[in-house]
Amino acid sequence: MQVVSDIASLKSIIEEKKQKGLSIGFVPTMGFLHEGHLFLMRMAKAENDFMVISIFVNPLQFGAGEDYEEYPRDLERDTKMAGSAGCDLIFSPTVKEMYPPGYATFVQVEKLTEGLCGASRPGHFLGVTTVVAKLFNLVRPDRAYFGQKDAQQAFVLKKMVEDLNMNLKVIVLPTVREPDGLAMSSRNKYLTPEQRKEAVVIYRSLREAEEQIRKGEREAGIIKENISKLILQAKHARVDYVEIVDSKELHPVSIIKDRCLIAVAAKFGKTRLIDNVLVEV
Ligand code: PAF
Fold first, then answer.
1. I need a surface site. Which of 79, 104, 137, 245 has the fewest CB within 10 A?
2. pLDDT of 62-80, one tens digit each?
3. How far apart are CA 219 and CA 159, in angstroms?
4. Three-state DSSP class for 262?
5. What is the pTM of this model?
6. What's residue 122's pLDDT?
7. pLDDT tens-digit profile of 143-167?
8. Is residue 37 annotated as a catalytic residue, yes or no?
9. pLDDT at residue 199, rounded to an integer
10. Half-sphere exposure of 161 (CA within 13 A, CB side)
């Protein structure tokens, strides 16, 4: 496995693989890898000839006062883990390499980015789409892999690929969870032991919402209220949003008639966690 941090080396390795006609699977990450990333990587390895990951904590997708500085970084640990999942190449650039002085180009997906995390983290998705567009141009993958935990991100990136006629397939794989149900996230590391125990309430509340719908409840307001109530029983929890949206445009629904996404963002202390479930009716 190779680790490169400069664009010129990355481009020349990718060109060589393309010349040989190899397919490329790509997993963009911000590092501090966990089992969720490894799941994406194993799939990328299984479905492609050459598997690339990027490790880049992208400053552009963090707002003022967010955790850009504290975001966990450990390239040595990540390299070992990526190697164990069959990674062939890690691209781990510096901020200057990605955004040199004078950098002035941004990619913006409209509408889908307005609600949910887009509303609570203004500018976040502009940062995500800009960096992912750059990474797609550099890595030239046939397939790129993302987790369902970041459901809105996956929707937005699919839309970007479609609208900009990018020549790759975006593949979204199920959320990988801890044994107690908490969605895996690099940010779980910030939780104190008490907050960690409490955080499981997010998934529990989503499961309960699924159960309510299964039993026939269709009023989104009632389901959302129940989720919030459950989460707020945890001492350190604050709800950022609880939303039920349709699974095409991500518009809030008041009566559940069709497949929908129930999405939650909640803070435990300073740590903001997100999770969601897709519900068929
Ligand atoms: O999901 C993430 O880790 C990031 O948003 C991504 C896609 C790597 C872009 O920085």
1. 104
2. 999 999 999 999 999 999 9
3. 29
4. strand
5. 0.98
6. 97
7. 999 999 999 999 999 999 999 999 9
8. yes
9. 98
10. 20
Which residues does the chain have with pLDDT short of 50? none
Ligand 1 center from residue 55 Cα (angstroms): 9
- pLDDT for 60 equals 98
Residue spans of beta strands (DSSP E) within the chain: 2-4, 24-29, 50-55, 89-91, 143-147, 169-173, 237-246, 260-268, 271-279
Extract the tokens encoding 89.
Answer: 């190449």
Q: Report the distance separating Cα 71 and Cα 189, nearest Å.
A: 10
Instruction: Give me the amino acid identity at 13.
Output: I
Residue 38 main-chain phi, psi, to 5 deg: -65, -35
Structural domains in the chain, CATH included, are 2-173 (3.40.50.620), 186-275 (3.30.1300.10)
**Cα separation of 46 and 32, whole Å?**
22
Closest Cα to atom 5 of ligand 1 = 128
Terminal alpha carbon distance of the chain = 45
Contacts of 157 (CB under 8 A, 6+ apart): 128, 129, 132, 144, 146, 170
State if residue 150 touches ligand 1 by the CB under 6 angstroms criterion.
Answer: yes
User: Which candidate in 37, 124, 236, 251 is catalytic?
Assistant: 37
CB-based contacts of 198, cutoff 8 Å, min separation 6: 234, 235, 236, 237, 268
Q: Which ligand 1 atom is the nearest neighbour of the CA of 61? A: 10
In angstroms, what is the span from residue 190 Cα to ligand 1's centroid?
18
Q: Is 128 in the pocket of ligand 1 (CB under 6 A)?
A: yes
Task: Report the SS3 class of residue 273.
Answer: strand
Q: What is the mean pLDDT of the chain?
A: 98
Nearest to 171 by CA among 275, 13, 28, 64: 28
**Amino acid identity for residue 81 in this structure:** M
